[in-house]
């Protein structure tokens, strides 16, 4: 609710207010209104009217990498569903890697591919973990 400057000053003090620049920003003004008690000055920031933001109504549909996409039969054999978001597919792949202990013990950034992973990773025996996201992109239709 917005209140006009004149009505605001009439409510707070009957004296005429003086304007002063704010120390926080040279572009904003403060309204110095003499207080009713013993000569103190109350600093009040002027309020401008603005529309209240609209509250979110419901849940929006997933977009981008969160949107479920159809996958190839090779990817479907690993994740178990015909349609999955990219983020969930990566989670399934990492769960498979952790379950079967497929990380190189000397360098944990290298994945040693088993038969299921070789189908997804173009037949490669070893894959860097940063390459996984790029290699699975062709499996999303």
TrEMBL record:
Pfam families: SWIB (PF02201). InterPro entries: SWIB_domain, SWIB_MDM2_dom_sf, SWIB_MDM2_domain. It comes from the Eukaryota. This is Uncharacterized protein.
